[in-house]
Amino acid sequence: MRQKNQKKRKVPLQLLYGLLFIMSSGAIAQQTPVTVDSALLDRVNVLEGQVASQKLGEEHFMVVGLTTFGFVSNKTTTTFSGSGQVSKTNKIIDGDSYEFSPMLLWRHGNKFLLEFEPSFAGDGLGVNWADITYFAAPGLMLRAGYIVLPFGSYDKRLGAGWINKLATDPDGVAGFSDYGIEAQGGFHAGDMKLSYDVAVSGSPSLQQDGTLSSVGLSPSNNHKTLTARIGWLPLSNSSLEFGISGMTGKVGDPGSGFENAKTNMYAFDLNCVQNIKPFQVNLKGQYSVVDVSNVDYINPVDSSIYNFNNHTTASYLMLAIRPMFSDNKVIKNFELAARFAHYETPANSLTGAKDNSFSVGLNYWLSWRTVVRWSYEAIRANSTVSSALGGNPGEINQSNSMFLQFSIQL
Amino acid sequence: MKTFYNKKTTIITLAGAVFTSLIIFNSCISEKAAAKSGVELWSENCQRCHNTPSPSTFSPEQWETIGMHMQTRALLTDNEKNKIVEFLKQ
């Protein structure tokens, strides 16, 4: 009986032990995730991140881009042999004051990036770039497609409306875009940094007036051009950069009469950004030379043959000052910019001129990528077109423009 | 054939020299440059061309994509790009 009772007692005790075991196991199970599961979760998160970075998906596709629009008022005075002529225009839509360029970026994993930027501007619809980049190794990116060639630094880095400090681009510094392949990268050399950018591409096209034209999306010749730029950032804070670049290749289209014409170009660029509190000071510049071999051209006036020294130079120097570190929330968003540019096209050619321009602008930054600007630009162009070509050598065009512009990057 | 062989050899030699140079140069980063934080690199490099972007502008995933795009424009080193993107993702 006693044994029976003891037996009977054993059952609840076993149950109690069992319950205690289960509860203690549960307690352990509840405690252990803090150590075991967090490590596991970390690992899972890492793996999920790796999987997410490799798989295709909407997350890796994004649309950014920019738009610029505004108003321009221009007065041009043409003076030749003592007589003058004045013309005035007021425009809302203009090549210098309107642009809509969405940019599509698609990242495939961490090794591939597709970039496509169509652009609708005052001069029509075009494509700025359409390429794929392969991040091959540290300091080595390989790109193929329709690319901006690495001649100078303005086109690739500074030309966008929301980056530019003034309403217009300096004349003559625009580079070339073409189909090609490119290798580029940056690396340290002690405290300094170096960058390189080399491209083999299709060739610009020599026009009947002696100018070189970026062929756009329809190549007109099968020539190849080699373009390269080396950048040197001597200071450890990357605030100063010197660039040297060059381009060489044949430029004559088949059947044009100058199939063997070649071009040699070189450019120097400068970029300096210093924070001298409360100001940020920006100094940027570029000097470029374009030489095309001497060929015979046809005079549009009498169909005779003529030639000229096809040598073009373009340069600009831009200074901008912004009290970025001011405590005043309004004043810190203002930025004053000024630019001097010189552009000299071949004398005795159909486009011969010596242009000197001065621009000044006042920007107000609504955000880091949104700006409202007022800008004034004066250009004095002295014609060097030969009279034999129907030109008026010595004719002076004085152009004064005022811009009101809004630009945003989205 | 001989010309082709010479061209091929030259190209391979040049490519080898470029890769070797890259490896050497990439190992030449100074302690000062290597120790820079993401926020330092963000403030130094972005302002070379434009205003420094606000981290809240894009999502972390989008910053990865933007980081790759900007690396091709500013020719940032991998170390710089990674640190800047990590800072912007926070």
- Which H/E pattern describes the elements of chain B? HHHHH
What's the N-to-C terminus distance of chain B?
58 Å
Shape annotation of chain B: elongated
**What is the radius of gyration of chain A?**
32 Å
Which range does the strand content of chain B fall in? under 5%
What is the N-to-C succession of helices and strands of chain A?
Answer: HHEEEEEEHEEEEEEEEEEEEEEE
**Overall geometric form of chain A:** globular
Structure notes:
- The complex is a heterodimer of chains A (410) and B (90).
- Chain A is mostly beta strands and 410 residues long.
- Helices cover 13% and strands 54% of the residues of chain A.
- Chain A is globular and about 90 Å long.
- Chain B has 90 residues and is mainly alpha-helical.
- In chain B, helix 3 (38-45) crosses helix 5 (78-89) and helix 4 packs antiparallel against helix 5 (78-89).
- The mean pLDDT of chain B is 85.
- Chains A and B meet through strand 3, strand 5, strand 6, helix 3 and strand 7 of A and helix 1, helix 4 and helix 5 of B.
